[in-house]
Amino acid sequence: MTSGALLQTQVVEKAWQDPSFKAKLLADPKAAIQEALGVVLPDHIKIKAVEESTDEFYVVLPPQPEKVVMSKIKPAGIWGE
Length: 81
Description:
Elements: H1 3-17, H2 19-27, H3 29-37
Helix pairs in contact: 1-2, 2-3
């Protein structure tokens, strides 16, 4: 599992277990993740949190590979600048 997938799993599990975290996650996802999980996210990273329902879901399209600028991965985190 990648670091990003692991973080996403942790966020989802915490939201299911903690209604106050879930509310904050939906209102201010970056602050909620930083406060609850201690993950420091760079200023240039934006996060959107939405809640699926039983009759609605979202498809997230990643950037096209040829448009992605490769950056050096920093051992301290997954959000390389």
